[in-house]
Amino acid sequence: MMEIFGLLGQGFTVALQPFNLTLIILGCAVGLFIGAMPGLGSVNGVAILLPLTFLVPPEGAIIFLAAIYYGAMYGGAVSSIMLGIPGASTAVATTFDGRPMAKQGMADKALTTAALASFVGGTISVLLFTFFAPPLAHVALTFGAPEEFALMMLAFATFVGLGGDDLAKTIFSICIGLVLAAVGLDIMSGEPRLIFGNITGFMHGINFLVLAIGIYGIGEMLWTVEENAKAGGKSMLSEATLTWARTKTNIREFLGTWKITTMGSVLGYFVGILPAAGATPGSLMAYGVGKQMSKTPEKFGKGAMEGVAAPEAANNAASTGSMLPMLTLGIPGSPTTAILLGGMVIWGLEPGPALFESHPDFVWGLIASLYAANLFAVILNILFIPAFIWVLKLPFTILAPIILTLCLVGGYAPTKDMHDVWLMLLFGIVGYLMRKLDYPVAPAVLAIVLGPLAEPAMRQSLLISSGDPMIFFTRTYSGPIMVVAIILLFLPALMPLFRRLSGKKASKAEGGAS
Amino acid sequence: MLQRRGRTLGVSLGMVGATALVAGASSAALAEFKPQKPIEFVVMAGKGGGADKAARLMQSVIAKEKFAPVPVVPVNKPGGSGAEALVYLKGKKGDNHTIMFTLNSFYTTPLRQKGLGVDVTSFTPVMRMAEDTFCLWVNSDRKDINSVDDFVKAAKAKGKKWIMAGTGKASEDNLLTDFLNKAYGLEMKYVPYKGGGKVAKELAGNNADSTVNNPSEQLGFFEAGKTKPLACFTDERIGLFKDAPTFKEIGKDFVYYMQRTVVGAPGMSDDAKAYYKDLFTKVFNSPDWQTYRKKKALQGDALSGEDLMAYWKKERDVHESMLKKMGEIK
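Predict the joint structure of the above. Result:
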């Protein structure tokens, strides 16, 4: 234990050098901006800035890029809340409640919650990282395909199992997302799937952002245009006010969500350290579990503060977590860490179990910089809230073209292919119709994010076991995860049965306590 | 606005290029080619993979040493085992600002997907930057396996339950697994994963019995003592793994390399060809690239022009016969 403090202290002497500190602050600011722009996201931001980092020593380089990654996690919530467009897959879950809150004129509350929850998530996860890195690296190493699939099942189950929406429509929506997720190369057979002959635009699959920006961004805009026309052009995108008194209330209310925020932080961190899972499943699962824990689950999806706190704490925690497999296994835990790994090659470092011993300055400097990055990111974010609120006060007629432009750029940026922009516009119309017909759109987005992770994991497992599904239940980690997932999945089917058995009166009384 | 300006600039440049081409294809007084806009560097694989890392290293070297007056911008097109990238480059005929970083799917993908209509010999050879090597790896926990003979014995005993993890169907790893199965009468089961790093981790975490990773993918685990190479598919032993023999030494004459090559769009002008050859010769000779080659145990000299084209033709034929033997193509 003392040894860790010594190493961490050494790390701080690296991170707090004036030059590195400047890099942290600069990185947080750049990240905040990049994250807030839909479609830019931390992956592209880090990739674009990577070649600049040869100008500074490796410690400074990783500190700068990690600060961008970190800042972007904060910024991602901004576009989710204000525009209803998740800028990155990690911010999808934040849209579910952040957007309704903004529409109800509580954008300030949502933004404050997101910033503070991110801070708590980030801090808890860095603490966990500092003290429990090596043993957790071992767990991450033994995680194979069956465990990965079990984890994805759990992510799906926390969602479906919560019910709320029409179950048939939810499943329909998930299926649409899964079909879209299947487009592109099938790594198991090496053959392209669903590419409609040889349309090259489908060969890279359908990027999550194309669907998310289409459905949320374009679809939402069409919806607002219609409302605006009905209201005689007076409707605003969202109303918001900001006063000191309101901010104090917001902070006090946020403190009330401490249980859910802590849960999100810890869950996010553990999901984040699992290779290939990354921050997205972590934040979605935190949202699902948060709803289970909440005293008012019926408010989720309609503007619950807890629904913003849980995923925001989780995605920041997971982004720290995903640094662990990157450093110790050389496996990226998220797309952004994949780029950071490339950076380590450029700086001449070899990620792997030996890195902690061979380059303590680099590793501990990075860990220490995360503490500092967290602090600066939350300060910057809170300072910027008034500016964000001001933007929201612009009339819809001015905001709409700006949002549309952001959407188009966001659809183009990840793959640099116009095909995806057309596809995104099409999804916009589909999203609008789905909303009109009262189909939930979130499950489709969830499926396109998790589908490409779940499918190969399932097929690899079954290939290993020669088709025996018991492989998911007989292994140390996958067994328990799978059982919990199945219980959660069938919860909505069992609940009515349970209620009928225990009588109507009891169920009414228990409504709030469960 | 910016975009429109860029496009008109591109069009006029294209026209200038075309006129120049018509005016003096054989003239020695040809104006020296200088890139006028950012060079698009297509990567035939996803972000964070081995090819992507090498491409970004080259980008950094070019920027750091100021080898080029314009930025080099990597664009990942991993779709369809590189099919997307190949079709894209094919469509850039005559473009002097698009180059691509490629690997062995350069041969296998057009062979397997004839419908793409891609003929790799129509592309402009720029420079082979290295050849990556392959070794047979097992987890260090397997104290009973210290040679290929031990490996064969253990794999035979487990039959179809022996898991060989690799990077995708009909990939380099799959070809090598097939070779091992045939050469030693084994029935190893090949399980495809996404990316060599993932494959390496499956072995280190004991979720697979063996792999045929590139040294660079296993290096981290090897240095930590988690995995060990048994033999390599090379002409000579690899410096980093002195104890691992080549398959040649143990009686199976089989060597296999993966190219790390820069290729240009079809129909690139001669002066552009000369420019890129010069550019990547500088990159090749830079201390950063040489250090990288050494650290990652890369082999293969720089190869360009006609020599590179001859190498492509030879390798394509080799891959065609391998894929035929596998039954992947007729």
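Strands of chain B lie at 39-43, 72-76, 98-102, 124-132, 135-139, 163-166, 189-192, 210-211, 227-232, 258-264.
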